[in-house]
Design brief:
alpha/beta, seven-stranded parallel beta sheet, two-stranded antiparallel sheet, 12 helices, 50% helix
């Protein structure tokens, strides 16, 4: 599966529909429509991108919404978590080294999208970028300025700056955690996944990593964003509607139990709990053993009668033996010659 995570949303729906259709024909399965905000966040954080779109899209094409926020100062970062319910992806565009550090450390960041068309790009510390990649944040390179020259002043300069800055970014990240997007406003600026892989080779990415930049690495961004939006710290997923299914199953089970025994579920549970034997602890076992020994000792004291009976029986045995002895002697005398 191939992803293009940066297609600017425009009110020109005819051109946008043409771009989405062409990207689908090139082999892309997931496309993110981007809305850009420069400066402070507005009061209304609702996404202006309609869901669903007011025009037909190619079948099998997944459409996501994305917000690209330009960070002018670290003061706007406390409101970043409030943007997550309104957008599928959140991309930050830092403009200073301080805002870059803030973007790399924010847990709400999905993408760091640098403006690589500027003449001078601020330094990119390797440790900061490596830590961000380790935490799941990816760095984006948009290729539209490198493949499409609008013919205006500075068009060629923007292309040269993008190639130079993209090479510096690949060198700083050692080719890890790079996502390549189009940022194409028209269908003419779009390129296929294999062409993007070849284009990334000119920035220092190998052919395999260049294809992963529109495949596996982009998918990591989407999956991580879904985990943050629909879970707790990206670990536990929250599934809506599960409580209703559980309640329905419990009701059916209670009805079956009531039909079998003629009792309500609470009564059946009370009977089952009463019938269940509690596990015996070691202390209880010792107490029971001590009680058994005491009862055995008391039984020996109370059974004196039994012991006397045993003594009487012994006396009777001696009497029988004494009585039988003369008989044995007489018998022996008779047998003597």
């Amino acid at each position: 599966m191939f992803h293009d995570l940066n297609v600017p949303y425009t009110s020109n729906h005819a051109e946008l529909q043409r771009t989405l259709t062409f990207l689908a024909e090139l082999g892309y399965n997931t496309i993110a429509l981007s809305h850009t905000i420069n400066g402070k966040l507005p009061t209304d954080l609702t996404s202006p991108i309609p869901t669903p779109l007011p025009f037909a899209t190619p079948p099998g094409l997944r459409i996501l919404t994305r917000l690209t926020l330009t960070l002018l100062s670290p003061a706007s970062t406390p409101r970043l978590p409030s943007l997550l319910p309104h957008y599928d992806l959140l991309a930050l565009r830092p403009t200073t080294p301080q805002t870059l550090l803030t973007a790399c450390q924010s847990p709400a960041t999905h993408l760091v999208s640098l403006d690589l068309t500027t003449t001078r790009l601020f330094p990119l510390p390797r440790k900061t970028l490596a830590l961000a990649v380790q935490n799941g944040i990816r760095f984006e390179i948009s290729y539209a300025a490198a493949v499409l020259d609008n013919g205006g002043p500075g068009g060629g300069m923007a292309r040269r700056n993008l190639i130079s800055n993209a090479t510096a970014l690949v060198r700083a990240t050692q080719g890890r955690g790079i996502v390549v997007s189009s940022e194409a406003r028209t269908a003419l600026a779009c390129r296929g996944p294999w062409d993007v892989g070849n284009l990334a080779g000119g920035w220092g990415l190998g052919g395999e990593r260049g294809r992963e930049a529109v495949g596996r690495e982009a998918r990591v961004v989407v999956v991580r964003a879904e985990g943050i939006r629909g879970g707790w710290r990206g670990v536990v997923s929250v599934v809506a509607g599960g409580e209703r299914g559980v309640a329905k199953g419990e009701a059916e089970r209670a009805g079956r139990e009531k039909g079998k025994s003629g009792k309500r579920k609470a009564e059946v549970l009370e009977v089952e709990k009463a019938e269940e034997e509690k596990p015996v602890s070691k202390r209880e076992m010792k107490r029971r053993a001590k009680k058994a020994r005491q009862e055995g000792h008391d039984g020996g004291v109370d059974s004196d009668g039994r012991k006397q009976e045993g003594t009487a029986n012994e006396g009777n045995s001696e009497t029988v033996s004494a009585t039988m002895t003369p008989i044995t002697t007489e018998t022996s005398a008779k047998r003597a010659p």
